[in-house]
Amino acid sequence: MLEITIAADNESFNPNSLLPGQSEQVAYLADGVDWDSYSRWSNIWDRAALGVDDPAGLTVATKTIVRCRRWPDGQVEVVGYNVNVHKAGHWHANDPIDPETGMQMIRPKAKRGDSQDREKSVEVSTQRSRRSVRERCKSIGADHMVTATYKENVEDRERVLRDMKEFVRRVNNLEKMGMRKLHYVAVLEKQERGAYHIHMAIHGFKRWKTLFAIWSEIVGKGNGGLYISGPGELAAEDGHITKKAKRNARRRGVHEIAAYLSKYIGKDVEDTELNKKRYFASRGIVVPERQTLGVYTEDFDVAFEAAFRYLVETANLEGMQTYRCPGRSAFWFATSDSRFRMPVVVE
């Protein structure tokens, strides 16, 4: 049942001003939404919610929150998840308030590293880092992947980080020669043998031979490799242009590259300390603010349908990524930029 619906432009909206059982739908929809069709569809659920009282004696309500981020190039991420909150009349002064929805939560989140269940803390930290990597990749419009390797078995994480920092510094020094500044998001991958690789998402075409020459100077000639994969069929290995393997030749959108890079977070969670950085990024990357699209009561399926309808009316669905987990009552959508088109497959 739809409780409130607010769209992307909701800075002045205060959810605390809504009265319990308020009958009118409140909606501030993002630009580009077909107001008439959206309003007709969503009001069906709103009318169904009128006059329904909560069962007597229950002090905790399950609600599904739907939130989104929109990027200037048209990419959209929508996430929905269930939370348990105190119902009106049963709130306690010491319980925290969710700043985005105005709802009072049952208990505060555990501080990072302070939870008695370390496994759960690592899982939460990993998911947070994956989301940050994905969002930053989308913000820079990452369309190329760079993988830097060592010929020798380098297991010293601090050395790898120093080499990566020096690589970025030298590339950015070429800005005065007309090369664009390197905006990047990077993660380290630990191989089974213990050696590290650097995976870096960047935006725009770079001088491939120059990048390889810089990496070779840092690690020593013949002691490292550099593989660069662009959005099309071509790639570069150690400065030489090649063609991708057939299975990797399909054009990939920014949202797919972002998801691909984020998967490297957490491969070595058992060896990772909670306070150790999991990803690295250039300065000045601006991630759009997350906005609340709706808060739904007792009906996960309705929230899912509402999120999908919102995307149908406002986003490019070609190549869209989806995830739904009914067991955990959560879902996630990620769409491509407005210009992305899936390639035509010729049999």
Structural commentary:
The chain has 347 residues and is an alpha+beta fold. The protein folds into two domains: 2-100 and 291-310 and 324-336, no CATH class; 132-281, 2-Layer Sandwich (Alpha-Beta Plaits). It is built from six helices and 13 strands. The strands form two sheets. The protein has a seven-stranded antiparallel sheet, sandwiched between helices. Strands 1-11-2-3-13-12 form a six-stranded antiparallel sheet, with helices on both faces. Helix 3 crosses helix 4 (208-219). The longest helix has 23 residues, at 118-140. It is globular, with a radius of gyration of 23 Å. It starts with a strand and ends in an 11-residue tail after the last strand. 31% of the residues are buried. Mean pLDDT is 72; it is low at 1-35, 37-57, 89-93 and 244-250. Residues 111-122 have a biased composition (Basic and acidic residues). InterPro entries: ORF2/G2P_dom. Residues 144-268 form the Replication-associated protein ORF2/G2P domain. Residues 108-134 are annotated as: Disordered. This is Replication-associated protein ORF2/G2P domain-containing protein.
**Class from helix and strand fractions:** alpha+beta
Number of individual domains = 2
**CATH third-level topology of the largest domain:** Alpha-Beta Plaits
Number of helices: 6
CATH architecture name of the largest domain: 2-Layer Sandwich
Distance between the termini: 46 Å
Beta-strand share of residues: 25-35%
Helix content: 25-40%
- Overall geometric form: globular
